[in-house]
Amino acid sequence: MVRTTVKNVFSVDLEDWYQGLEIDMAAWGAYPSRIEAGLDILLDLLDKAGVQATFFVLGWQAERAPHIVPRLAARGHEIASHGYSHRFVYQQGPVEFRADLRRSVRLLETQSGGPVIGYRAPFFSITADAQWALDIMLEEGILYDSSVFPTHNYRYGIPNADRRPGWVRTPSGGRLFEVPLSTVRLPTSGSRMGVNVPLGGGGYFRLYPYALTRAFSDHLCVREGGGLVFYVHPWEFDTQQPHIKLPRWLPQVTHYHRLDTTADKVRRLLADFEFVTMREAFAPHLAEVVAR
Asked: What is the pLDDT of residue 250?
């Protein structure tokens, strides 16, 4: 049965397999491109379900495969920015971040023929120490951000951030619409507040049995009255991608774990819930900004 009580968002971080492994951009040329292998599977699933998604496209990738963004735009998918270099925001300074964001937005607008109003940081790396980037987004014309993950992870997270999409104050006092990745609040012994358990996709989606994802999503959408903000990467559908040895074991495990389950789980998710783009889901809020 399809849930229609809230607007759920389906999003895609469009990057190739090696770009999700914390490999520096200077070394990317040594790895074979497989962006089309997983993307074709994902697009087929979205087409069959009649779903249009928001694609946060990595600028470097769009530059080297310039046919992809027009292909997505022609299908009605929203094009948003994933930056250019896939570097953690908190490892960049303001000058570098602005240049990275501006380069990606100009490229994607040229390729798509439309405005780019959304941004998602690589590895969700808008942390408590990197919120200065929110002001730069506003100055560069970004209307909404989807970089904050209200949980704890060794790469990212602001555990006490608001779990619902809404307006946030930037360090300089501006207002930006933030669309955090979905979590569910579960009680824990010895804590009144409980803990935020990630729900919104990626490695968590591959790790959980689908029944658990379904139960968490029902809890979020029905009991909490929220909407599911979900994401995947094209490489998560590519079971034939190369396996390489990394210096750290954790990113290797989270990257390769249960890739063979992604397509079937996404097929079930698209049948059980309705999804729209971020631009459509939050249009009334974004219209406030445009009208000013």
From this structure: 74
Cα–Cα–Cα angle for 7, 8, 9, rounded to 5 degrees: 120
Closest CA to 161 of 182, 142, 139: 182
Three-state secondary structure call for residue 164: coil
Place of tokens 């990317």: 28
Cα four-point dihedral sign 211, 217, 220, 221: negative
Tell me the pLDDT tens digit for each residue of 207-229: 999 999 999 999 998 888 889 99
C-alpha 56/C-alpha 76 separation (Å) is 14
Please name the residues in contact with 250: beta carbons below 8 A apart, sequence gap of 6 or more: 154
Q: Give the integer Cα–Cα distance in Å for 135 and 126.
A: 12
Q: Specify the DSSP element, H or E, that contains 11.
A: strand 3-14
- Name which of 23, 158, 13, 177 is nearest 90 in CA terms: 158
Cα separation, 183 vs 220, in Å, equals: 8
Buried b / exposed e over 103-113, threshold 16 CB at 10 Å, is bbbebbbebbe
pTM exceeding the 0.70 threshold for the entire prediction: yes
Structure tokens belonging to residue 169 = 């104050």
Q: Where are the alpha helices (DSSP H) in 189-240?
A: 202-207, 210-218
State the Cα torsion 102-106-111-114 to the nearest 10°.
110
How far from chain centre, in Å, is Cα 92? 19
Question: pLDDT tens across 235-283, in order?
Answer: 999 999 999 887 777 777 788 889 999 999 999 999 999 999 999 999 9
The pLDDT value recorded for residue 192 is 63
The amino acid present at 149, given as its one-letter code, is F
Residue 230, pLDDT > 90, answer yes
In the DSSP assignment, the letter for residue 230 is E
Would you say the C-alpha torsion 12, 15, 18, 21 has a positive or negative sign?
negative
Number of CB atoms found within 10 A of residue 58's CB: 24
